[in-house]
């Protein structure tokens, strides 16, 4: 019998060892570990046992295998995109109110512009107050300006909304320093009011504390507006017309019965209203009363109408002058009425 030399025997031993370990091992690179990692020790042992029983496979072209996998991935992605195109996903939205400035509602004793509420739909999110403030900073849209004459904002367009934290009815709003740049005292008070009214529309917020670049604000801007206490809506009543319709906001779609809420500063707490369609058909009209005739106070009334199809309409509110009975403080809210 021919004798096998020592080096040859060693080589065969190494080859046998490799066969027992599963043959051609491939370096797959580093493994990413996620928080969902579970114990795979048992699975690894089972895999090792199975690999030991398997015969070594023929070597394959790794490049070809990777190419085939990539093509399979691309095919799957293309199919998914095709499905998405055929059935577009419906994005959830939330309806919010943004507070801008506009004319209308002036009286001999009170000049505008005043706050006005505009309804807008935005993508739903858990941080709805933050998202709503960013919409406010973006300013009114051209469509909104087409509905409300002279619709404008006092918030500087380069303002950044850095954060909003809400705790026990208090919202802490962090804005960049650009928020206090430029403008006089009316502009400064208006932009503060816009933010306060926008944030306090949410039932979890009653008051607002302002930060600028993360620093608490006690004196706002070069106008020297003191802010040692949290701000609320009551601090900006002079920026409201004598009859301020808060809801429904401009652009809202409403059904009957329609609830109308807001604030009024009118003689004997009484004001007039009229709901009419674009062709002048009056659907509801009359007078309403606020809670108090001695000061600015809330009102909450219900109007009824009957329409067969969606159509544009206007809600007009005004007061009668205590001096001569003439109409004054007239303001119009554009709506869409639904059957």
Describe the structure.
By secondary structure, this protein is an alpha+beta fold. The protein has 2 domains: 93-239, no CATH class; 243-337, Immunoglobulin-like (Sandwich), CATH 2.60.40. The protein has 6 helices and 16 strands. The protein has helices at residues 6-20, 41-53, 62-86, 128-138, 142-147, 185-199, and strands spanning 93-102, 114-123, 161-167, 169-175, 205-212, 215-216, 219-220, 225-226, 243-247, 253-254, 258-264, 270-277, 282-289, 297-303, 311-320, 327-337. A hairpin with a 2-residue loop joins strand 5 (205-212) and strand 6. The termini are far apart.
Q: Portion of residues in helices?
A: 25-40%
Strand content: 25-35%
Specify the structural class.
alpha+beta
Give the CA-CA distance, first to last residue.
Answer: 104 Å
Poorly predicted segments: 1-86
Number of helices: 6
Radius of gyration: 34 Å
* DSSP strand count: 16
Strand order of the largest sheet: 10-16-15-12-13
What's the number of domains?
A: 2
Which word captures the global form?
globular
Topology:
Blueprint: H1 6-20, H2 41-53, H3 62-86, E1 93-102, E2 114-123, H4 128-138, H5 142-147, E3 161-167, E4 169-175, H6 185-199, E5 205-212, E6 215-216, E7 219-220, E8 225-226, E9 243-247, E10 253-254, E11 258-264, E12 270-277, E13 282-289, E14 297-303, E15 311-320, E16 327-337
Parallel strand pairs: 4-5, 10-16
Antiparallel strand pairs: 1-2, 3-4, 5-6, 7-8, 9-11, 11-14, 12-13, 12-15, 15-16
Helix pairs in contact: 4-6
Supply database-style keywords.
disordered N terminus; 339 residues; alpha+beta; globular; five-stranded mixed β-sheet; 2 domains; Immunoglobulin-like
């Amino acid at each position: 019998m021919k004798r096998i030399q020592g080096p040859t025997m060693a080589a065969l031993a190494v080859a046998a060892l490799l066969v027992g370990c599963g043959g051609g091992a491939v370096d797959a690179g580093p493994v990413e570990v996620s928080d969902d990692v579970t114990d795979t020790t048992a699975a690894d042992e089972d895999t090792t046992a199975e690999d030991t029983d398997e015969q070594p496979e023929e070597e394959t072209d790794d490049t070809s295998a990777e190419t085939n996998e990539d093509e399979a991935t691309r095919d799957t992605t293309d199919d998914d995109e095709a499905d998405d195109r055929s059935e577009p996903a419906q994005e959830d939205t939330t309806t919010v109110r943004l507070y801008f400035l506009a004319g209308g509602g002036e009286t001999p004793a009170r000049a505008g512009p005043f706050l006005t509420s505009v309804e807008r739909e935005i993508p739903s999110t858990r941080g709805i107050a933050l998202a709503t403030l960013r919409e406010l900073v973006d300013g009114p849209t051209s469509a909104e300006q087409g509905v409300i004459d002279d619709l404008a904002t006092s918030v500087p367009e380069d303002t950044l909304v850095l954060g909003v934290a809400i705790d026990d009815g208090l919202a802490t709003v962090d804005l960049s320093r650009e928020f206090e740049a430029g403008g006089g005292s009316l502009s400064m008070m208006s932009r503060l009011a816009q933010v306060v009214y926008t944030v306090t529309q949410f039932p979890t917020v009653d008051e607002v504390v302002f930060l600028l670049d993360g620093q608490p604000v006690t004196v706002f801007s070069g106008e020297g507006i003191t802010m040692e206490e949290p701000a609320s809506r009551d601090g900006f009543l002079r920026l409201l017309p004598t009859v301020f319709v808060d809801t429904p906001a401009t652009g809202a779609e409403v059904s009957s019965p329609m609830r109308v809420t807001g604030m009024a500063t009118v003689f004997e707490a009484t004001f007039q209203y009229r709901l009419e369609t674009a062709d002048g058909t009056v659907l509801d009209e009359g007078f309403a009363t606020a809670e108090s005739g001695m000061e600015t106070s809330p009102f909450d009334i219900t109007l009824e109408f009957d329409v067969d199809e969606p159509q544009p309409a206007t809600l007009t509110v005004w007061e009668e002058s205590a001096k001569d009975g003439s109409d004054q403080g007239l303001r119009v809210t554009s709506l869409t009425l639904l059957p």
